[in-house]
Amino acid sequence: MIPSLVWASMRQRPGRSLLLLLGYALGVGVTVALLSIGDALVEQSRDRDLLGGGDLLVLPAGIDLETLRTGGVSSLYFTLDQARFYHREVLTGPRFADDIEAVAPWLEDELLYLEAGSERIAVSAGGHIPSAAKALGASPDLIAGRWEDTESDRLWMRPEPVEKLREIDAFRPTPPAAAGDSTWAEWHYFNVVSPDESEWIYLTFLAGGDVPDGEWGGRVLLTYVHADGAQRSQFIDVAPEGIELQFDRPDLEMGDSYVRLRPDGTYEIRATVPGAGGELGLEVLLEPELHRYLPPVNVSPGGFPSGYVVPVLRGTATGSVCVDGSCTEWENASAYHDHNWGVWRDVTWDWGHFEAGDLSILYGGVRQSTEDGTDRSGGRFAFVVDSLGLAAILPIRNIEYEWTGDEPTRMRLEASLGEQSLRLDVPVDHWLATEQEADGRSRTFYQLRGTAEVDAVLVDGPVSGRGSGSFETWRTR
Fold first, then answer.
1. Strand partners, 188
2. Does the pLDDT of residue 47 top 90, yes or no?
3. CB of 423 closer than 8 Å to CB of 413
4. What is the residue-wise DSSP string for 387-439?
5. Is 45 helix (H, G, I), strand (E, B) or coil?
6. Tens-place pLDDT, residues 97-134
7. By C-alpha distance, which of 297, 376, 289, 380 is closest to 337?
């Protein structure tokens, strides 16, 4: 009966029936087209060739994925910050060794300009590391010549331990933003604790001042502390002609004191600091532990340069410590080393480092006091590694100190991101205060030690522990 009604309607109203038929056909056609496009997008998202041959694509945060796929203008000029670190210590590190078969750095659609006589030509270029692209099954078809890794490719992906330390721990030429600023400084810092944890050393090799105009110099500062309360802090200033530093390695000479990186990847450290009460000295070999380091990072809130790298989050030091001519041999003492640079006018910081079982925990952040009395912060972060490498990078939500008068008694820290979290509860066992006057304001710099109770949820799940460490803060009056 329905076909009879359809034919009767078409005979009586052919125009209306044809228009209705076309309307239905158009709607169905659009629906089919949209379903086909959606299905194609799903298939493309699973296509290894369109993702450079991989199952996982690592991109900068906040990038427009669809525009990146279609090659739009927003896909240009993006870089992956700390790409070397993530490649070496995360994607090809021991933690995911059983899960990730191959990783290939991928650089596409970089806009370059070539000079051809008086003409400037814009070109689009890309780059790959041959062995990595081949392992990923995404190497191009070679028409002629050879396509092989260079020495630079090897250094980018698989540097030897000593090569990596030269790369991240070298001194830096004074940047233009710090030209003429007498507060520019760059320094090596070492923290060494005796095997029985009854003594410890804070050691700084600092070069700074108005470097471009020659008004600069160096200082070796050594602080010796004993758990029974005895402490000594002495320094010696060194004129520019007595300083030799390197821009391709950590090596630094300051008079009779020095830091040298040996070919086997260990640091040779010697410091001799005379004082009115006698001489303090340190001469040790520091051996870093693999996978425990923080790459160079910019910690400035903006407006001034400030950087930080921790080549040795956990290491062991063997050698001698001398106090007034009496020397003690330390073997496999716990050691830490970082390297700082920046402009330090009205700049303070929070910082701490703890060792709790397999965890190495580092936190920090700088802030600058402005003319209106407010503070600008660069953002405080917690960085956690274990024997398998990176375990978490978390923004700090809160740091609280408890005081009894001018005496610090406890520090609590909370950091979290998503399901990961870190909590530290640290009673203060020992503290050292240094008074400073700047711009009419009194500030106190505190160097503290304590044993932290650690409660965390990291990449491999919940973990808790207990371990000692050092931390620093400032208090302004």
1. 205, 339
2. no
3. yes
4. TTEEEEEEEEEEEEEEEETTEEEEEEEEEEETTEEEEEEEEEEEEEEEEEEET
5. helix
6. 899 989 988 876 666 777 777 888 887 777 889 999 88
7. 289
End-to-end CA distance of the chain: 96
Q: What angle do CA 104, 107, 112 make, to 5 degrees?
A: 160
Gap between the Cα atoms of 95 and 388, Å rounded: 5
pLDDT of residue 73: 44
- Sign of the Cα torsion 386, 389, 392, 393 reads positive
> What's the mean pLDDT in 379-390?
94
Evaluate whether 207 touches 245 at the Cβ level (below 8 Å). yes
pLDDT digits (tens, 9 = 90+) for 320-349: 999 998 999 999 999 999 999 999 888 899
445 and 458 Cβ atoms separated by less than 8 Å: no
Tokens 């205060």 -> residue: 433
Please determine, for residue 29, whether its predicted confidence score (pLDDT) is greater than 80.
no
Burial string for 56-92 (b: 16+ CB within 10 Å, else e) reads: eeeeeeeeeeeebeeeeeebeeeebeeebbbbbbbbb
Query: Which is more confidently placed, 451 or 29?
Result: 451
